[in-house]
C-alpha cells in the first residue's frame, strides 16, 4: 500500500507548480464560501429547538408570542401638540405595515379619552392627561421629556421576517421628518439582536486583525532564526479563509461564542505551520532541498496529523453539549484546525520548492567563505551566530531540565497532582453567568435603550405556562387556571401579575367567572380574535403569563424553581399537562446547562482522545499524553476561582478546549521520543533530545499562540474578553505541562524498559 505522505512528497518535489495551482483553485472556492456566511442571534443560539424544551419554546413563540418593538420618543416636551401629532402620523404609518398586529402608546390613550380624535390644543391635552388613570400615564409618559409606543408584531413570525419588519420601521422613522429637537429610537429584543449581530461582525474583524498583528510581532520576535519567518502567518491566514469557506458552504452560522474560535484557530494554526517550517529548517542543514522536504512531510506531518486529529476530537466533544452555539464553536474549531493543518502541509513544502529554500546559516557560511574580508550591509555573521546561539542555549536548557525531571519523576508528579486536586475542588465554586445582557458591551446603544425601557415600564419579560388537555375550556380547568394564577401571584413577591384566558373572560363578563361550558364558549366567542389568540389555541391549549419585577438571572432561576414547586403543591386537574417555558426559563436553564456541559464536554474530550490514541497506537501507553492534561484541567479550575472569572457558554468549553490544545504538545513530545528511541538512544537520552528538539518549536508556537489568544482580551464583548484571559493562561499551562510534566510521565511509564544508562552532555 502506498504511503500517502510519501506520495504527497513525491508530487510536491516533482510537480510543485501543479500542486500550487490546485491549492489556488481550492482557495478561490473557499473565498466564494465566505460570502455565504450568516450571523446567528436569538433563541436558536442558546437552545436546540429539536429538544423538548426547545420545541415547547418555539411552539409558544409561534402560537402566542408577539414580539414587540418599542419606539422611544424624546424631546424637551413630548406633550407638545406638534410632537404628539408627529407621533400619531408615525404610529399610523407603522400600523399599516404588514405583520404589525397593533400599536399602543400615549397617543392611543389620548384618543380613547377624546372620542377617537387627537386634541389640537395644549389645554385639551393637559386636561385629558389629568383625567387618565395615573398608572397608565406613568407607563406611557414617564416624564414630559420621554414617551414610549409599543408596536406588537403578528405572532409566529420567523426571525428573518421580524428583521425585515424592523428594517421597514427603521426606514419609516428615518423618513418621518420629526420636529426640531425630537429624537426617535427603536428598542426591543429584535433591535437588540440586530445591533448585537452588527457588533459581532465588527468585533470579529477587529479580533482577527488584532490577532494577526500580535502574531506577526510574536513570530518576528521568536522565530526570526529561520528564513521567511512570516510564512507561518500567511499559512494561518490561508487556513482561516479555508475555514470561513467551509462554514459558508456547510451553513454553520457565526454567533457571539463562535467569534471566539477565530483567534483560537490563529493560535493553534500557527503551531502547525511552525512545526512544519521548523523541521524543514532543521533538515535543510543535513541534506538537499528535495530530501529535506521529503523528510519534513514523511516524518513531521504524520506526528502533527495525529496531534491535529486528537485536538479535533477534543473540539468534537463540544458538539454533544446542550448549547447549540457551543456546538457551532466545536464545529468551527474542527474545521479550522483541519484547514490550518492542510494549509501547512501543502504550503510549506511547495513554497520551499518554488523559492529553492535555504537556511540562514547556509548563507552565512557562503558569505564567510566567498568574501570574508568584505563588509556587508545588515547583520554580520557574528550577529547571526549570536542569534543562533540564543536558540541553541535555550535548546540545551530544555534538554537539561527534561533530563533532570526524567531522573526524578515521582516527586514532580505528586506535587502537580496535589495542586490539580485542589483545582478540581475549587472549580465547583466558580460562578455561572448566562445573562445575555452581560455578554455584550455595557455601552452598546441597544442595551442602553432596553435598560431605559425597563426603567420606564418595568420588566417586559414574562414567565409563560402552557396548559394542554382534552378540553381546556371545561369549568373545572377554567377555574383552576384562574385560581392557580391568583395563588402564584399572591405567594411570590417577585411576580407582579398574571394574564390568561380566565382573566380575559373576567374582563368581558363583569369580573365574574362563568359556571357552564356553554357560558364559557359564549363569552369567548364575543372576544376579538387578536386578544383571544394571545391566551388560547383552539380548545385544547391555553397559556398563563406571569409578569415579574426586573431581577438578576440567578433570581429568575430561583423564581422558576419556586413556580415549579407551586405546580406540584397546587396540582392540576386530571388530564391537564402544565409546562413552564419562555425566554426567562430558557436563560435560567442555560445556567444548569453550562454547569452540566462543562463537565460533560471535558469527560467526553478525554474519552474521545483516549479512544483515538488507542486506535492509533494500539498500546496502553496511548493514554500517556492525557496524564499532563488532567493536571492542566485541574489548574484551570483553580485559576478560574482565584481570578474571579465566571463560567459562561464560552468559558464552559475551556476543559474540552484545553484537552484539544494540550494534547498536541504532549503527543508531539511522545512521538519525537519514540523516534529517538527507535534510533537506539537510551530512555533519558531520548527524553532529553525530544524535549530539546520539540520543546523549542512548541515554545515558539505556544508563545505565539498566547499572542493570538491575547487578541480575545481586546474584545468589547465581555464573554469573549474573559475567554481570552482564561485561554492565555490555559496555553501557558499546556506548554508547561508538555515540557515539565510529560518528561516525568514518559520516564515513569518507560522505566521498566532496559535502555541502559545515559549521561546527558551539556554541549
UniProtKB/TrEMBL annotation:
It comes from the Archaea. Its main location: membrane. Residues 235-354, 599-748 form the SSD domain. GO terms for cellular component: plasma membrane. The chain crosses the membrane at residues 20-39, 204-223, 230-248, 254-274, 304-323, 329-355, 410-426, 599-617, 624-644, 650-670, 691-713, 719-750. Keywords: Cell membrane, Membrane, Transmembrane, Transmembrane helix. It is found in: Cell membrane. The keyword Secreted does not apply. It is a multi-pass membrane protein. NCBIfam families: 2A067. This is Hydrophobe/amphiphile efflux-3 (HAE3) family transporter. It comes from Methanospirillum hungatei.
